[in-house]
Amino acid sequence: MGCKAWIAGCSGTSLTEDERRFFADERPWGFILFGRNIHSAEQLSDLVAALKDVGGRERVPVFVDQEGGRVQRLRPPLAPSYPPSATLGRIHDADPRKGERAAWLQGRLLAHDLMGYGINADCLPCLDLPVEGAHSVIGDRAYGTDPVVVATLGRAAADGLVAGGVLPVMKHMPGHGRGNADSHLELPVVDAHRSTLAERDFAPFVALKTLPAAMTAHLLFTDIDPTFPATLSPIVIESVIRHEIGFDGLLMTDDMSMKALRGDIGDLARQAISAGCDVALHCNGDMAEMRKVASAVQPLRDEALRRALHAEAFLAPHRPSLDEAGLRAEFDELVARVA
User: Fold this and answer.
1) Is there a contact between 179 and 130 (Cβ–Cβ < 8 Å)?
2) Is 278 a catalytic site residue?
3) Catalytic option among 18, 93, 184, 267
4) Which end of the chain is more exposed for a tag (fewer CB within 10 A), N or C?
5) Rounded distance between C-alpha atoms, residue 331 and residue 326, angstroms
């Protein structure tokens, strides 16, 4: 039987025997790493190798949130620090060609850093469009407030990741920029009219709809589905994400253990898959919760399996060669212009 429709976290810096047995039995499609899983270079490489080994197939995605700015799970000395996406937007404001180049370089260098440890999937680019008065959880994680600029820089960053053998995951579909709360803590509500959302918030995702993977937003869009947040909404997923945006890639949930979603974690995972998500993401490594999620999801099949295999095709078996020093010097020079 194939792998199941979920992505798992683990509790610490190495797999426990309990986790090894559980993952071997419950076969998550992939794994995700957080700061709690990262201690040293050798330890991280060993953990990634162990996750791929227990995954039991040639291409096992191992995800991380490595954006730059506030959101970097790997920090010095394990990986260099990078500016937030908003800095790349400022470079683009001054010189569009240089901004696009800087976004590509950051993606390419991030991929080089991650692949050094075997990490082959990055939850980037962030295509959200912040608006005045929105919660700061997105803030400088966004490339800017112009949908065309955000799409341009997001595409360049994604292309840089792909060139480095890393699967890009655009987020947070269909748009987190208007959120009035931090979805890690509570459910944000967006009251904007659907036509406004289509004109602005959805636009970068439409432009990048051919990317292989995307992550949902735990937001309630009252003009589209006043009952269920996007992750759990068949209306948002089918009508907006699949039809209006036209995205046919792998759709993974944002973390199911975030406080924006209320209820039994197994029921939530079941509802997300039923609503049209391909894979449920569970990040916190809590074994009791993981057992519920794993029991709620089925093996990948049909369209979800097709999308998962397409996404896996972007995972390089080895780190591509790179003139690291040359590209890093070029990138640093571009960033220094707006420092």
Assistant:
1) no
2) no
3) 184
4) N
5) 9
